[in-house]
Amino acid sequence: MADANPRCFRVDGAAGRAFSRAAACQVRTSRMSEDIRSLSRGFPAQSPEDWRALALGALKGADFDRSLVRRTIDGVERGPVFFDRPDDASPLYPPRDAFLPWGIRQVHGAADPAAANADILADLRGGVTQIALRLDQDGTNGIAAASAQDLRRALEGVDLTVAPVHLESGGEDGAGLLADALRDTPGAKGGFGLPPGSPSAARLVSNFPDMTAIAVDARAVFDAGGSEVQEIAFMATGLSQALRALIDQGVEPRIAGNAVEVRMAADADIHLTVAKLRAARIVCARIADAFAIGDVQIPIHAVTAYRMMTRRDPWTNLIRVTAAGFAAASGGADVITVRPVTVALGRPDRFAHRVARNLQIMLQEESHLGRVADPAAGSYLHETLTRELAQQAWTLFQTLESEGGYRAAVEGDAMRERISAFREAHEQAYRSSRESLIGINAYPELHAKPVHALPGHDIGHDAPFPAIRFAEPFEAFRDAAEKHEEKTGTRPAAFLATIGTLAEFNPRTGFAQNLLAAGGLTVTGGEAYRDAEACVTAFQESGSSLVVICGSDAGYQAEAATLAEKLKQAGADEVWLAGRPIDGVTGITRHIHMRSDRLDDLRLAHKILGVQG
Description:
- The protein is an alpha/beta fold.
- Among the domains are: 195-414, TIM Barrel (Alpha-Beta Barrel), CATH 3.20.20; 475-608, Cobalamin-binding domain (Rossmann fold, 3-Layer(aba) Sandwich), CATH 3.40.50.
- It has 21 helices and 13 strands.
- The protein has helices spanning 20-39, 48-59, 64-68, 113-126, 148-154, 171-181, 201-207, 219-223, 228-248, 253-258, 270-290, 316-330, 350-365, 380-402, 405-411, 414-431, 472-488, 502-517, 532-542, 553-569, 598-608; strands spanning 103-108, 130-134, 165-169, 190-194, 211-217, 260-266, 300-304, 335-337, 493-498, 522-525, 546-550, 574-578, 590-592.
- It is globular and about 85 Å long.
- The protein starts with 19 loop residues before the first helix and ends in a 5-residue tail after the last helix.
- The relative contact order is 0.10.
- Residues 1-29 have low confidence and may be disordered.
């Protein structure tokens, strides 16, 4: 397997039989596709080189890559335009069964087993098809299940031959409790959620043939800040370890394949998530073929990413999970979990669960996403991204295997360092606003009404790598500003000193107001003053110690230095300027602009305004 050509991902041999249904679908649509292609035959074919030549002419000397090319954090090129390639002409993997909808799985973790049971039954009546349980012996962050009887109480009234039950957390102890609880339930479906290489997996496979024993949980990499390639590669090494261990314990290869589930994250980047899940399917099929497990298709369970969720302005999460759920379905996930919008606030209540499940039902029954085996097939964008992600992930997978495989990746430093490097790159992108979280580092709403959530947290899985949220550093500043307001009775505020007319300063006053609001700070001033003296008087009346000058570049050159000096004489501790440094403009303490470090800006602003962290 280590010598396999990473550019060759089509699955031959026994696994190829899994393509039959997809091939049948292609036959039915081939005639329509041929009719569509015939419309373009009267036009001359254009090559990537032809398009690039025209683009270079339009750029008039500007750098092509800097102007038009975007790349993922893994370095995969995202355009600006994609073309057909011969090696994208046929299906690369067995897609999800187009004749069956994906499974809708919801996580439950109410401390009291009876309360958890009520929540579970409400979800099942509302359209959920699978249940996941989060266990925690003391009940702080999951069901307080100390015995099999507790789990039976949580699952009372659930037909487990129809509605599968899976463990999200609990480890070996939790798996043992679930096994005891299901001992007298023949035909029960679901999964024990054990990590690859678990010593009890083979026994569970033997005793519960309709359940998966192992969950290869690669979303831990993504939610720790890792990249798409890292997540797929980690999944690959975990899947290899799971199959290898089961087969070594005497489990037949085909049965071993049926005993494993893969879990991946889905985030709001629709195109990249679609490509990632398709690439994961390719890699799964390649590994399955290497272990000769037959035509078994490893199920992919997609979960909307924790790292993109926000505690502040949580209703923006509804758009994020909608995009992620759409991407998961379009990427061919067999099972999807949409996290409730209040996941970062605590344990979700009934309403949050209802919104999460209805979102998936709408994607199935109103958008009809599950009626197509592989919605992205034939899209040059998605085919290219899929191929590149699969190739890079296969290369990293081989590296991980050479370093010791799954156990070394989990316990050693090499994988953690790789993830850390990408997490820092992501965080820097949010700090400089190259990436946005609406309601957090862009367009924050300081007076949003609080949203209800229950005590506890809902990360929902045992992770070998610590989960993060990119919004957390900004939310910490918001918390500090609110505590300051509670103590003093006033919200900390900076003063906006303007130069010129409303049309000249308004873009930068809006920018400064949004930047400061990301840290929970408000502003005063920002009006059109008749002269510098009127502006200084308004500043003195504001009582603020921080001033941000806002205007046009021409206005800065003419007036900013003089105005800054007058403001300092009037008591300003620091005078900032909204915009990049301008030659000849002196007296400015700090410049805030589109690429300045937002967290450093907010840290200094809090310090100047006397806000304690």
